[in-house]
Write a structure and sequence with these properties.
The protein is an alpha/beta fold. About 50% of the residues lie in helices and about 10% in strands. The strands form two sheets. The protein has a five-stranded parallel beta sheet, sandwiched between helices. It has a four-stranded mixed beta sheet with strand order 7-8-6-9.
């Protein structure tokens, strides 16, 4: 019997919380053959937003996973390409800059990165020896690998040192380097050129034994954006000249502006020097399948049932592409996280007395707006609930004639209502639910909605599952039995989704240098989109996007450009080309979409439907200016959209947030 709470399985949504060996824990995307880092003969740049799984993706290609003890056998061809993962310690690397060390920064940085990777080579050989590799002679050869004499001299060693013990030596010198950085007098405790020394080490030590004689070693540098510009330039120079047996790769947050400069007058150039892998693009076509497999693999690890397949094994990808398999796993996850159709949501809305009363009030107010004496009850038919809900918003539109509307309603004119329902039903549902802060809308529940809310972001997906299971555990003390018996009710999911949305807003404050500022932007945008959602007419339904009228953020506006880019880097805004221009004056190139994960908290749509066009002054009032200017903008929109009692109370008081610098 498993006494661990199921929610803890989903709580681990960061690669740092998992072991380095992720064999049978990492789910390969179905189009992985196009992105196998170990198959490339040149460097790669891996990009992805926060929570897109960059670190897990890199670690899949590295020696702890390649040499995993969970593999029944390690094949010789798996030794042809081996990855080594390295992520700079920011506390350490931030001290190794020209500003702090003058010209000594380069020798110190070479020593730092060199020692770090030498340590990994030592652990690589140790892992190889402990693996399920069958050739005992090769294993014994690896055990006897020793540090060459010139390395012994460099590190001040007298005794014969095996490579498996080299990690301890490297850690000792890293500690000395750290001490020197605190009081950088004279030269660093050890000096060598990392790139050339690593190449020499590979060619004279590692590749002299048979299992590694043809091996190419791939160094994956994660969080490249956290390195200083001069450090990036040095690594770019190594990328420029990368070739077997040592190839450098980098990974960083999408949209982050890193340098392409090298130590020479040249720059590293896409295609010529490296390939780009965009993880979000890699996932997006098959994300529903990937998400299903991730969820089921985690549930299997709890319920101890047989996994569907070994989802880390590239040889099984073809089987996972079969429609029968994909339909099965999607249906299994949909049973765990069920959803309501829009028709079913409307049925539930009519059952709720308070929500039904709001519907009646909307119709009464609409008839008053139209100055019509028709009985409001004529516009409600319990057998035609969707049309009744649409009537409630149409009566608030200037071009609607109540008598003609009633005629179409009574004649059951399907063609009249078809497009209206398709375009306005979701907005109408959200309109009624946003009238009550204590009610959570079932529209956001279900696996398919989780896919929309997470937008190919694995961390968001896992958090939605995690919060749903936490709420389930609060209300159910009984044991879980089998996956097939496990299903989380809609009302539990809806509360969990709102909790997740709120939590993600809370976390923004800790994102990078401008976290407080980004949190303010999300709250301000969300409140305006929420205000739009409260328009009784829903003539511009489901607004969650904006453009900038007759203005583009560019280098002449440093604050605007910086904040827009920070929003993109941290996944707060999604930028797309503005292909749908609504007017002749709409000349904005880009469309900015508030990430759907924030939609449930603000009671707005997660779908890409409508936008508002902001003037540059309005943009500044949301992104840059103080609360007084923003409140004037909020009040202006409230008056323009005829929102009689806009809610000004929120758990977020934007006055308490830091102002922009």
């Amino acid at each position: 019997m498993n006494h661990t709470k199921l929610s803890t399985i989903f709580a681990k949504n960061r690669a740092e919380e998992l072991p380095d060996d992720i064999w049978n824990k990492y789910v390969l995307p179905l189009n992985y053959e196009d992105a196998n880092l170990l198959s490339f003969s040149k460097s790669t740049v891996v990009k992805g937003g926060r929570g897109s799984g960059k670190t897990m993706f890199l670690k899949y290609h590295c020696y702890p996973t390649i040499f995993s003890k969970n593999k029944q056998e390690l094949l010789e061809n798996e030794l042809n390409n081996i990855g080594i993962y390295w992520r700079p310690d920011t506390d350490f690397s931030n001290m190794i800059t020209k500003n702090y060390l003058d010209e000594n920064w380069k020798v110190a940085f070479n020593a730092y990165i060199g020692l770090s990777i030498f340590s990994e080579f030592s652990k690589l050989i140790t892992n190889f020896i402990a693996s399920n590799y069958k050739n005992e002679n090769h294993i014994n050869s690896a055990k006897e690998l020793i540090i060459p004499d010139d390395f012994k001299e460099l590190f001040g060693l007298k005794d014969r040192i095996r490579i498996t013990d080299f990690d301890t030596i490297c850690q000792k010198y890293r500690s000395q380097l750290n001490d020197w950085l605190n009081y950088p007098e004279g030269k660093p405790p050890i000096i060598f050129g990392a790139n050339q020394k690593l190449l020499y080490f590979i060619n004279t030590v590692i590749r002299v034994i048979e299992p590694f004689e043809n091996t190419t070693f791939h160094i994956f540098i994660d969080e490249f954006e956290n390195l200083a510009k001069e450090q990036q330039i040095l690594i770019n120079s190594w990328i420029k000249h990368s070739q077997s047996p040592l190839i450098f790769h980098i990974a960083y947050k999408k949209h982050y502006k890193v340098t392409s400069d090298t130590l020479s007058n040249e720059q590293i150039v896409d295609v010529n020097d490296y390939r780009i892998i965009d993880l979000e693009k890699l996932y997006e076509d098959n994300f529903e399948i990937l998400a299903s497999e991730i969820i089921l693999s985690k549930l299997n690890s709890y319920f101890k049932e047989e996994p569907i397949y070994n989802l880390s094994d590239i040889k099984l990808i073809e089987k996972r592409r079969k429609k029968l398999y994909q339909d099965d796993i999607k249906n299994r996850v949909k049973k765990i996280f069920p959803s309501l159709s829009r028709v079913e949501i409307v049925i539930e809305l009519f059952k709720d007395k308070a929500l039904y009363n709001k519907l009646e009030k909307l119709i009464k107010d609409g008839l008053n707006y139209q100055k019509s004496k028709l009985d409001y009850k004529l516009f409600i038919d319990l057998d035609r609930k969707e049309e009744s809900l649409i009537n409630a918003i149409l009566l608030h539109r200037d071009k609607i004639n109540p008598n003609e509307l009633l005629k179409n309603f009574e004649e059951k004119n399907i063609s009249y209502y078809k497009d209206l329902i398709n375009n306005n039903l979701v907005g109408s549902i959200l309109l009624i639910y946003t009238s009550y802060q204590n009610k959570t809308c079932p529209y956001y529940a279900g696996f398919e909605r989780f896919i929309m809310l997470s937008q190919a972001n694995i961390r968001h997906l896992l958090e939605l599952c995690h919060q749903s299971i936490i709420e389930y555990e609060k209300r159910n003390n009984k044991e879980f039995f089998r996956i097939k018996n496990f299903s989380i009710p809609i009302e539990i999911q809806t509360k969990a989704v709102r909790n997740t949305s709120k939590t993600q807003i809370d976390k923004i404050a800790n994102l990078g240098k401008y976290g407080k500022d980004l949190q303010k932007i999300v709250i301000r945008l969300g409140k305006i989109f929420n205000l739009s959602q409260k328009r009784d007419s829903q003539s511009m339904a489901e607004v969650n996007q904006f453009t900038l009228k007759s203005y583009e953020i560019n280098s002449s506006d440093e604050d605007g450009e910086k904040l827009i880019n920070e929003c993109k880097v941290w996944g707060i805004l999604q930028e797309e080309n503005n292909n749908k221009q609504t007017t002749d004056k709409d000349n904005a190139r880009y469309l900015y979409i508030l990430h759907p994960i924030f939609a449930p908290y603000f009671g707005i749509s997660d779908r890409k439907k409508r936008k508002i066009d902001l003037s540059y002054e309005e943009f500044k009032n949301i992104f840059i200016n103080r609360e007084e200017e923003y409140q004037k903008l909020y009040d202006k929109y409230s008056n323009r959209w005829s929102i009689s009692n806009p809610s000004k109370d929120s758990i977020y008081n934007t006055n308490s947030l830091l102002d922009f610098i």
